[in-house]
UniProtKB/TrEMBL annotation:
Organism: Streptomyces griseomycini
NCBIfam families reported for this sequence: maleylpyruvate isomerase family mycothiol-dependent enzyme
GO molecular function (one): metal ion binding
UniProt-recorded name of the protein: Uncharacterized protein (TIGR03083 family)
A Pfam entry, by short name: MDMPI_C
Amino acid sequence: MTQLPHDRYCDEIAHQVGEFRAVLASGADLSATVPTCPDWTLEQLVRHVGGALRWVELIVRTRAQEEVPVDRVPEGGGPGAQSDAAALEAWLAESGALAVAALREAGPDARVWSWAGIFTVGFWARRMTHELVVHHADAALAAGRPFGTVAADVAADAVDEWLQIVQFVQRALPDGPAKELRLPGRSLHLHATDTAPELNAEWLIEPAEDGVVWRRGHEKATVALRGPLTSVLLAFYRRLPLDAPEVEVLGDRKLLEFWLERATFG
Protein backbone atom coordinates (compact mmCIF):
# COMPACT_ATOMS: atom_id res chain seq x y z
CA MET A 1 0.00 0.00 0.00
CA THR A 2 1.38 3.42 -0.96
CA GLN A 3 2.40 5.52 2.00
CA LEU A 4 2.17 9.29 2.32
CA PRO A 5 5.04 11.58 1.30
CA HIS A 6 7.70 12.09 3.96
CA ASP A 7 6.98 15.80 4.28
CA ARG A 8 3.30 15.03 4.81
CA TYR A 9 4.16 12.94 7.84
CA CYS A 10 6.47 15.65 9.18
CA ASP A 11 3.77 18.29 8.71
CA GLU A 12 1.22 16.12 10.53
CA ILE A 13 3.55 15.47 13.45
CA ALA A 14 3.95 19.23 13.87
CA HIS A 15 0.19 19.70 13.58
CA GLN A 16 -0.63 17.01 16.14
CA VAL A 17 1.93 18.39 18.60
CA GLY A 18 0.17 21.74 18.26
CA GLU A 19 -3.20 20.12 18.92
CA PHE A 20 -1.80 18.30 21.94
CA ARG A 21 -0.42 21.57 23.28
CA ALA A 22 -3.85 23.15 22.89
CA VAL A 23 -5.26 20.51 25.23
CA LEU A 24 -2.67 21.45 27.85
CA ALA A 25 -3.30 25.16 27.36
CA SER A 26 -7.03 24.67 27.92
CA GLY A 27 -6.60 24.29 31.65
CA ALA A 28 -6.91 20.50 31.63
CA ASP A 29 -6.34 18.69 34.91
CA LEU A 30 -2.93 17.03 34.65
CA SER A 31 -3.92 14.50 37.30
CA ALA A 32 -6.97 13.31 35.34
CA THR A 33 -6.97 9.63 34.41
CA VAL A 34 -6.75 8.87 30.70
CA PRO A 35 -9.84 6.68 30.12
CA THR A 36 -8.27 4.79 27.23
CA CYS A 37 -4.91 4.35 29.03
CA PRO A 38 -6.14 3.93 32.62
CA ASP A 39 -2.68 3.36 34.06
CA TRP A 40 -1.73 6.92 33.08
CA THR A 41 -2.69 10.40 34.12
CA LEU A 42 -2.76 13.17 31.53
CA GLU A 43 0.64 14.33 32.78
CA GLN A 44 2.11 10.85 32.32
CA LEU A 45 0.66 10.70 28.82
CA VAL A 46 2.31 14.01 27.93
CA ARG A 47 5.64 12.78 29.28
CA HIS A 48 5.28 9.55 27.29
CA VAL A 49 4.61 11.42 24.05
CA GLY A 50 7.36 13.98 24.52
CA GLY A 51 9.81 11.28 25.55
CA ALA A 52 8.96 9.22 22.48
CA LEU A 53 9.54 12.23 20.23
CA ARG A 54 12.95 12.85 21.80
CA TRP A 55 13.86 9.16 21.59
CA VAL A 56 13.06 9.10 17.88
CA GLU A 57 14.91 12.39 17.37
CA LEU A 58 18.04 10.86 18.89
CA ILE A 59 17.75 7.69 16.81
CA VAL A 60 17.33 9.68 13.60
CA ARG A 61 19.86 12.43 14.30
CA THR A 62 22.61 9.96 15.24
CA ARG A 63 21.60 7.42 12.57
CA ALA A 64 21.52 4.79 15.30
CA GLN A 65 21.98 1.24 14.03
CA GLU A 66 20.83 -0.44 17.23
CA GLU A 67 18.21 0.26 19.85
CA VAL A 68 18.90 3.33 21.98
CA PRO A 69 18.09 2.92 25.70
CA VAL A 70 15.51 5.49 26.73
CA ASP A 71 17.64 6.55 29.71
CA ARG A 72 20.21 7.92 27.24
CA VAL A 73 17.75 10.39 25.74
CA PRO A 74 18.58 13.98 26.79
CA GLU A 75 15.65 15.47 28.73
CA GLY A 76 13.60 12.44 27.76
CA GLY A 77 11.64 12.47 31.00
CA GLY A 78 10.55 16.07 30.73
CA PRO A 79 10.64 18.83 33.32
CA GLY A 80 10.70 18.20 37.07
CA ALA A 81 8.00 16.35 38.96
CA GLN A 82 6.25 19.50 40.22
CA SER A 83 6.11 21.19 36.81
CA ASP A 84 2.93 22.93 35.73
CA ALA A 85 1.06 22.67 32.44
CA ALA A 86 2.99 25.58 30.91
CA ALA A 87 6.34 23.87 31.53
CA LEU A 88 5.07 20.60 30.11
CA GLU A 89 3.64 22.37 27.08
CA ALA A 90 6.94 24.14 26.39
CA TRP A 91 8.86 20.86 26.72
CA LEU A 92 6.41 19.08 24.40
CA ALA A 93 6.69 21.89 21.84
CA GLU A 94 10.48 21.62 21.88
CA SER A 95 10.30 17.82 21.67
CA GLY A 96 8.11 18.04 18.57
CA ALA A 97 10.28 20.66 16.91
CA LEU A 98 13.44 18.63 17.49
CA ALA A 99 11.88 15.45 16.11
CA VAL A 100 10.44 17.12 13.02
CA ALA A 101 13.73 18.88 12.26
CA ALA A 102 15.67 15.61 12.53
CA LEU A 103 13.19 13.74 10.34
CA ARG A 104 13.23 16.44 7.67
CA GLU A 105 17.02 16.71 7.66
CA ALA A 106 17.51 12.95 7.35
CA GLY A 107 14.93 12.27 4.65
CA PRO A 108 12.88 9.08 4.40
CA ASP A 109 15.54 6.73 3.06
CA ALA A 110 18.33 7.20 5.60
CA ARG A 111 19.10 3.92 7.35
CA VAL A 112 18.39 3.71 11.10
CA TRP A 113 17.36 1.07 13.62
CA SER A 114 13.69 0.29 14.22
CA TRP A 115 11.83 -2.34 16.19
CA ALA A 116 9.77 -3.42 13.18
CA GLY A 117 12.54 -4.50 10.84
CA ILE A 118 11.99 -1.47 8.56
CA PHE A 119 15.33 0.25 8.85
CA THR A 120 14.56 3.69 7.47
CA VAL A 121 13.78 7.14 8.82
CA GLY A 122 10.54 6.92 6.87
CA PHE A 123 9.33 4.24 9.27
CA TRP A 124 9.73 6.62 12.20
CA ALA A 125 8.02 9.54 10.46
CA ARG A 126 5.00 7.37 9.77
CA ARG A 127 4.97 5.71 13.20
CA MET A 128 5.21 8.97 15.13
CA THR A 129 2.46 10.53 13.01
CA HIS A 130 -0.03 7.88 14.05
CA GLU A 131 1.30 7.65 17.60
CA LEU A 132 0.50 11.33 17.99
CA VAL A 133 -2.93 11.09 16.36
CA VAL A 134 -4.03 8.36 18.74
CA HIS A 135 -2.51 9.90 21.86
CA HIS A 136 -4.01 13.27 20.96
CA ALA A 137 -7.36 11.48 21.07
CA ASP A 138 -6.40 10.05 24.48
CA ALA A 139 -5.52 13.52 25.76
CA ALA A 140 -8.77 15.02 24.50
CA LEU A 141 -10.73 12.30 26.28
CA ALA A 142 -8.85 12.88 29.52
CA ALA A 143 -9.46 16.62 29.30
CA GLY A 144 -13.11 16.26 28.31
CA ARG A 145 -12.50 18.16 25.07
CA PRO A 146 -13.81 17.36 21.57
CA PHE A 147 -11.25 15.60 19.41
CA GLY A 148 -12.20 16.82 15.95
CA THR A 149 -11.46 15.13 12.64
CA VAL A 150 -8.25 13.54 11.41
CA ALA A 151 -7.31 14.44 7.84
CA ALA A 152 -8.62 11.69 5.58
CA ASP A 153 -5.27 10.72 4.06
CA VAL A 154 -3.69 10.45 7.50
CA ALA A 155 -6.59 8.50 9.00
CA ALA A 156 -6.65 5.99 6.14
CA ASP A 157 -2.88 5.52 6.39
CA ALA A 158 -3.24 4.98 10.14
CA VAL A 159 -5.58 2.05 9.49
CA ASP A 160 -3.12 0.61 6.96
CA GLU A 161 -0.23 0.94 9.36
CA TRP A 162 -2.12 -0.65 12.24
CA LEU A 163 -2.96 -3.67 10.08
CA GLN A 164 0.69 -3.98 9.07
CA ILE A 165 1.73 -3.81 12.74
CA VAL A 166 -0.69 -6.63 13.58
CA GLN A 167 0.88 -8.70 10.79
CA PHE A 168 4.34 -7.93 12.14
CA VAL A 169 3.37 -8.83 15.71
CA GLN A 170 1.97 -12.16 14.56
CA ARG A 171 5.36 -12.97 13.01
CA ALA A 172 7.58 -11.51 15.75
CA LEU A 173 5.59 -12.65 18.80
CA PRO A 174 4.04 -15.95 17.77
CA ASP A 175 2.84 -16.64 21.32
CA GLY A 176 1.30 -13.21 21.87
CA PRO A 177 -2.41 -12.32 21.88
CA ALA A 178 -2.44 -11.79 18.10
CA LYS A 179 -1.73 -15.49 17.56
CA GLU A 180 -5.44 -16.10 18.11
CA LEU A 181 -6.33 -13.95 15.11
CA ARG A 182 -6.40 -17.04 12.88
CA LEU A 183 -10.01 -17.69 12.02
CA PRO A 184 -10.32 -19.13 8.51
CA GLY A 185 -13.56 -18.23 6.80
CA ARG A 186 -14.18 -15.18 8.98
CA SER A 187 -13.65 -11.58 7.88
CA LEU A 188 -14.02 -7.97 8.94
CA HIS A 189 -14.94 -4.97 6.83
CA LEU A 190 -14.18 -1.34 7.68
CA HIS A 191 -16.25 1.19 5.75
CA ALA A 192 -15.74 4.95 5.94
CA THR A 193 -18.95 6.70 4.93
CA ASP A 194 -17.67 10.27 4.50
CA THR A 195 -14.70 10.08 2.11
CA ALA A 196 -14.26 10.56 -1.62
CA PRO A 197 -14.35 7.32 -3.65
CA GLU A 198 -10.81 7.82 -4.91
CA LEU A 199 -9.46 7.47 -1.37
CA ASN A 200 -10.92 3.94 -1.24
CA ALA A 201 -11.30 4.12 2.55
CA GLU A 202 -12.64 0.59 2.94
CA TRP A 203 -10.82 -2.50 4.11
CA LEU A 204 -11.40 -6.24 4.07
CA ILE A 205 -9.48 -8.08 6.81
CA GLU A 206 -9.17 -11.86 6.91
CA PRO A 207 -7.63 -13.50 9.99
CA ALA A 208 -6.47 -16.52 8.00
CA GLU A 209 -4.75 -19.63 9.36
CA ASP A 210 -1.37 -18.42 8.07
CA GLY A 211 -1.86 -14.94 9.55
CA VAL A 212 -3.85 -11.79 8.95
CA VAL A 213 -4.24 -10.65 5.36
CA TRP A 214 -6.04 -7.51 4.21
CA ARG A 215 -6.75 -5.30 1.25
CA ARG A 216 -8.53 -2.08 0.45
CA GLY A 217 -11.98 -2.37 -1.10
CA HIS A 218 -15.69 -2.90 -0.61
CA GLU A 219 -16.48 -6.57 0.03
CA LYS A 220 -18.96 -8.52 2.11
CA ALA A 221 -17.66 -9.74 5.45
CA THR A 222 -18.68 -11.53 8.63
CA VAL A 223 -18.85 -8.19 10.43
CA ALA A 224 -18.68 -4.59 9.26
CA LEU A 225 -17.74 -1.42 11.12
CA ARG A 226 -19.21 1.67 9.44
CA GLY A 227 -19.05 5.37 10.12
CA PRO A 228 -17.07 8.53 9.40
CA LEU A 229 -13.41 7.72 8.81
CA THR A 230 -12.13 9.36 12.00
CA SER A 231 -14.72 7.46 14.03
CA VAL A 232 -13.85 4.16 12.34
CA LEU A 233 -10.18 4.81 13.05
CA LEU A 234 -10.81 5.61 16.72
CA ALA A 235 -13.04 2.56 17.18
CA PHE A 236 -10.45 0.34 15.47
CA TYR A 237 -7.82 1.67 17.89
CA ARG A 238 -10.20 1.14 20.82
CA ARG A 239 -10.51 4.88 21.42
CA LEU A 240 -14.25 4.94 20.67
CA PRO A 241 -16.77 2.40 22.03
CA LEU A 242 -18.51 0.20 19.49
CA ASP A 243 -21.86 1.39 20.81
CA ALA A 244 -21.00 5.05 20.20
CA PRO A 245 -23.54 6.80 17.95
CA GLU A 246 -20.81 7.72 15.46
CA VAL A 247 -20.30 4.11 14.34
CA GLU A 248 -22.45 1.16 13.34
CA VAL A 249 -21.62 -2.53 13.68
CA LEU A 250 -23.33 -4.90 11.24
CA GLY A 251 -23.07 -8.66 11.55
CA ASP A 252 -21.05 -10.66 14.06
CA ARG A 253 -20.15 -8.08 16.69
CA LYS A 254 -18.38 -10.69 18.81
CA LEU A 255 -15.87 -11.25 16.02
CA LEU A 256 -15.03 -7.53 15.96
CA GLU A 257 -14.71 -7.50 19.75
CA PHE A 258 -12.45 -10.57 19.56
CA TRP A 259 -10.23 -8.74 17.06
CA LEU A 260 -10.03 -5.57 19.14
CA GLU A 261 -9.05 -7.51 22.26
CA ARG A 262 -6.18 -9.31 20.54
CA ALA A 263 -4.85 -6.85 17.97
CA THR A 264 -2.14 -5.23 20.09
CA PHE A 265 1.50 -4.24 19.94
CA GLY A 266 2.13 -7.35 21.98
